[in-house]
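Lecture notes, continued. The same structure-token format from the folding unit now serves as the input rather than the output. Read the line below as a description of shape only.
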């Protein structure tokens, strides 16, 4: 691959999932929460306290959750790497047969297959790399740093979750909800468009998809809050 071809592939793609995941969840979950509290006709202070609590708890939960999940993937890779390394050392004939089986499935036959197997197994590092990628299905280059993805998710969630809460500091509940909804939907659309740089999807469809998800969560929470408020008012 030459420099021109390499430049066509966006860098940092393996971490975009954490940023999108954190930002999307922070925006949608906290907007849905403040919408539900607003629908229940609760005051600005209650909405703000609820929003701040969800913002902090959600960011910690999401950050730690992504950290643990990614750390588990790294540990799995290391365990399988050591196992394959040991098997190549202790049972090389069996491992060669596995390489042969892998490339036979890819369509290689006869002398061509034998040449490929010989080429791969002549270098233990290459042999091990092929076993990890082809048999186990994991690639070291795609491994994410657990601490990095944890902090990215934490920060993205915290920043996004703060946005729906801010209008309630300066506006009445109804007006604050409208401003929060418009702002968050605009940001969700922008994030949907931005991620197409890595996914290659149609930008309009991606943006609208993000907005629809946010709108469904917000409207459902608002009307549920309104329903329970009316129900409790009648019952109590």
């Amino acid at each position: 691959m030459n420099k021109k071809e390499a430049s066509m592939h966006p860098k940092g793609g393996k971490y975009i999932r954490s940023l999108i995941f954190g930002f999307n969840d922070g925006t949608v979950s906290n907007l849905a929460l403040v919408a539900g509290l607003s629908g229940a006709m609760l005051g600005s202070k209650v909405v703000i306290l609820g929003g701040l609590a969800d913002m902090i708890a959600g960011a910690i939960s999401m950050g730690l959750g992504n950290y643990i999940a990614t750390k588990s993937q790294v540990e799995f890779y290391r365990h399988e790497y050591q196992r394959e390394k040991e098997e190549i050392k202790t049972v090389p004939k069996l491992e060669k047969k596995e390489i042969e089986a892998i490339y036979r499935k890819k369509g290689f036959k006869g002398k061509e297959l034998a040449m490929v197997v010989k080429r791969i197994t002549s270098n233990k590092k290459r042999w091990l790399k092929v076993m990890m990628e082809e048999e186990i299905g994991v690639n070291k280059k795609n491994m994410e740093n657990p601490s990095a993805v944890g902090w990215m998710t934490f920060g993205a969630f915290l920043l996004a979750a703060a946005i729906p809460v801010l209008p309630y500091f300066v506006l009445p509940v109804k007006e604050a909800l409208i401003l929060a909804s418009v702002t968050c939907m605009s940001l969700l659309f922008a994030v949907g468009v931005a991620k197409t740089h890595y996914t290659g999807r149609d930008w309009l469809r991606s943006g609208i998809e993000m907005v629809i998800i946010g709108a469904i969560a917000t409207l459902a929470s608002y009307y549920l809050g309104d329903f329970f408020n009316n129900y409790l008012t009648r019952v109590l």
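Point for the exam: The chain has a mean pLDDT of 89.
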